[in-house]
Specification:
320 residues, MetI-like fold, 0% strand, flat, membrane, cell membrane, Sugar ABC transporter permease
Length: 320
């Protein structure tokens, strides 16, 4: 009986050529674009369009209820001779500088304390966050009562309890008293953000570095300047940038407490832009004031970008 052997023929299915859509979906660049498209669309609608419209309005004489025409730099020329505007620029820079320095000094001190082994550390951290959690307008109303000329608890303690003064302090009726009152309120609200952010940075520093420094006989100040400050510098730069941006563009706190008074002495550029644009009806001039804030914000952002681009500095070293 003979056996017939048949050679197996390999099965090679014919592959179909992928279509244009399949090739497109395999393209990495197209997939990246497709994934970013929703985010780009949201940014275009809620950021780019309002910003572009504001810049356009700054070059027109638009008023509420009446369309405007292109007037070039006329709004900016009028602001150049506007003493109220320059007063707002001065107080914005003063408010931002003083409040940022105080927030960073007190916030860093508080972060260093919370980084130690203190009793009820978790509870203290939660309590410290309260000023940051409370809505801005609610805390502004509380400060408005604290600084009231007749019902101020501060004046009551100084006059009626301690007897250190004969008259109540007019916190919000005197220009410089009002300016310092707003700085105090802003510092109170901003310290938690700085303290918790820096505390997170402190906890990334290895304890072995401090132990080695102690064995070498380093003092507390030497440990801070040689270990803590250099290694904390990258997060300091980020927190500083955000703090400057938040403080420079502050609106709710100032407007809820003083509305720019007395006699326009506490106007920030943001509150003045709102007052001229919405209650005043001069949308073009209000937009021009808002656009004038952009160079300051760009400088603050560039500072953060170029500072963080220093790789050795990020690692606690110095650039050569």
């Amino acid at each position: 009986m003979s056996e017939t052997t048949t050679a197996a023929v390999p099965w090679n299915p014919k592959r179909s050529t992928p279509g244009a859509l399949a090739r497109l979906l395999d393209n990495k660049a197209f997939l990246v674009f497709l994934c970013l498209l929703p985010a780009v669309g949201l940014l275009m609608v809620f950021l780019t369009y309002p910003l572009g419209l504001g810049i356009w309005l700054a070059f027109t004489d638009t008023h509420i209820g009446r369309g405007g025409v292109f007037v070039g730099f006329e709004n900016f020329e009028s602001l150049w001779y506007d003493q109220v505007f320059w007063g707002a620029v001065f107080y914005t820079l003063f408010y931002t500088t003083v409040a940022t320095v105080l927030k960073f000094g007190l916030g860093l001190w508080l972060a260093l304390l919370l980084n130690e082994n203190v009793p009820f550390k978790s509870l203290i951290r939660a309590i410290i966050l309260m000023p940051w959690i409370v809505p801005t307008v609610l805390s502004a109303i509380a400060f408005w009562w604290m600084f009231d000329a007749q019902f101020s608890i501060i004046s009551y303690v100084l006059v009626d309890v301690l007897g250190w003064r004969d008259t109540y302090i007019d916190f919000l009726g005197t220009p410089w008293h009002a300016r310092w009152s707003l700085v105090f309120a802003n510092v109170w609200r901003g310290i938690p953000f700085v303290a918790i952010s820096l505390l997170a940075g402190l906890q990334t520093i290895s304890p072995s570095l401090y132990e080695a420094a102690l064995l070498d006989g380093a003092s507390s100040w030497q440990r801070f300047t040689k270990i803590t400050a250099p290694l904390l510098m990258p997060i300091l730069s980020v927190v500083l940038t955000f703090s400057v941006l938040f403080t420079f563009t502050d609106f709710q706190l100032v407007y809820a407490i003083t509305r720019g008074g007395p006699i326009n002495s506490t106007h920030l550029m943001a509150t003045l832009a709102f007052q001229r644009g919405i209650p005043g009806g001069q949308l073009g001039e209000g937009a021009a004031i808002a656009v004038s804030m952009i160079p300051f914000l760009v400088l603050a952002t560039l500072f953060s970008y170029f500072a963080l681009s220093r790789r050795k500095w990020q690692q606690g070293g110095n650039d050569e």
